[in-house]
Q: What sequence folds into this?
């Protein structure tokens, strides 16, 4: 298995690298919102050019790398088989990293499709689709060689991510190339908006959510030493996400030119999504808390417990946004950014951190992390960072929404746009501070993992701090 895990180690370290790079860019963006002069009047580092580096780095750098690395490890382990091809796995690894590097070069230069979470131009779209199909082949071909009778539940989630994202990515990125660096979508107007948010919501929701759920259903029982609390709830969680999530993106189209009946589908599906999401959250929560003694002593589980709380929170915020009266206040405000990051930093980020702490030592044959005390310190930095970030943006966002709609008796707006900017200014600083706390915790983790994989042996005394 040592030869098998080399490519998985590579994906895990790549995920860690791109995650920190993307988060560091996120801090730079947050700083620019409070100190606009930090763009130094350069077209290459202004907010609009840097933001796609942040979002693409998190989605395709951090999450996709950890998804591929963990899913290949899990499918081999739970199916009692080997990868169908080591060579193809390494081609996938290098191809995916080349894609990310090219994206980080072209986006600041202004080569962009302008589509949310799909900014890469058509040659890179083709490269991404090719690598994703290669990933699909490696995963499903390996699964087909399984020596077990059943398919472990995590592999159901991984497989669904591969299939659904393939379908939505291809449709949304269907374009007419004009030059090597410019193309135009085959869709237009309201149709383009619908297809974009069919992709956009599922890139954030389905790709990030189903991937992390699949990872959690494998890693958490390994850390706790307990089986998944309820197989039935995991099935409800799976089929509920498959049935409802892909329809929910149109709740971003409320009060738009999209037909009302399509808006209503998004509203209904978003509300229905509450049930399977919380079923999954409850299932994971009961698995984490099954052994109270281990929960008190193993701080990796604190990250998982925190992540599932943020999962429940963010999946409550989504249906809340789908309600028209709340959407009217919160949409297009900083509340949306807070909502996204309660999921991205709280749910996805905390889960990825816990997975790094469990799987990287495992891949290197280490029985324990070098310092569990540093894991605890990291947890406090991450938790403070998330809370500062999202609470500041919730307050700023609701304040924005209320101020934008306030009117005098004459019908004139009560507040100017500048008044709104002055109101949110202190919350932009708190947002920046929250990001600094979070990323500082990531560097603590890097040091801890470095010591873990480089020391010859890990003593219990050292681990316990």
A:
């Amino acid at each position: 298995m040592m030869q098998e895990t080399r490519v998985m180690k590579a994906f895990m370290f790549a995920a860690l690298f791109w995650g920190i790079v993307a988060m560091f860019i996120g801090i730079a963006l947050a700083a620019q919102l409070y100190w606009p002069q930090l763009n130094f009047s350069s077209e290459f580092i202004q907010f609009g050019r840097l933001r796609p580096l942040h979002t693409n780095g998190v989605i395709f750098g951090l999450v996709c790398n950890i998804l591929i690395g963990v899913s290949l490890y899990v499918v081999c382990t739970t199916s009692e088989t080997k990868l169908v091809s080591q060579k193809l796995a390494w081609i996938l690894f290098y191809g995916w990293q080349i894609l990310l590097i090219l994206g980080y070069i072209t986006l600041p230069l202004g080569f962009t499709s302008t589509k949310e979470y799909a900014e890469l131009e058509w040659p890179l779209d083709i490269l991404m689709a090719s690598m994703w199909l290669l990933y699909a082949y490696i995963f499903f071909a390996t699964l087909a060689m399984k020596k077990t009778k059943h398919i472990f539940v995590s592999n159901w989630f991984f497989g669904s991510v591969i299939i659904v994202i393939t379908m939505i990515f291809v449709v949304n990125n269907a374009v007419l190339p004009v030059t090597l660096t410019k193309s135009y979508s085959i869709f237009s107007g309201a149709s383009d908006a619908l297809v974009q948010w069919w992709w956009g919501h599922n890139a954030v929701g389905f790709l990030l959510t189903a991937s992390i759920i699949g990872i959690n259903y494998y890693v958490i029982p390994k850390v706790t030493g307990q089986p998944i609390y309820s197989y039935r709830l995991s099935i409800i969680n799976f089929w509920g996400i498959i049935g409802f999530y892909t329809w929910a993106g149109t709740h971003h189209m409320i009060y738009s030119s999209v037909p009302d009946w399509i808006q209503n589908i998004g509203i209904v599906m978003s509300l229905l999504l509450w049930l399977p999401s919380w079923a999954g959250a409850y299932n994971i929560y009961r698995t984490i808390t099954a052994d109270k003694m281990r929960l008190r002593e193993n701080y990796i589980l604190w990250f998982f417990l925190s992540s599932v709380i943020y999962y429940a929170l963010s999946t409550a915020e989504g249906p809340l946004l789908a309600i028209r009266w709340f959407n009217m206040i919160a949409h297009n405000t900083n509340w949306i950014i807070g909502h996204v990051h309660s999921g991205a930093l709280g749910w996805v980020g905390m889960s990825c951190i816990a997975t790094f702490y469990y799987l990287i030592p495992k891949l290197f044959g280490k029985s324990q992390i070098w310092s569990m005390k540093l894991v605890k310190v990291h947890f406090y930095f991450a938790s403070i960072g998330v809370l500062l970030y999202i609470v500041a943006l919730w307050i700023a966002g609701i304040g924005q929404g209320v101020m934008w709609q306030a009117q005098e008796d004459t019908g004139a707006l009560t507040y100017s746009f500048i008044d709104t900017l002055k109101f949110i200014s202190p919350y932009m600083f708190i947002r920046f501070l929250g990001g600094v706390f979070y990323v500082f915790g990531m560097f603590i983790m890097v040091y801890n993992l470095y010591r873990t994989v480089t020391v010859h042996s890990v003593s219990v005394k050292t681990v316990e701090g």
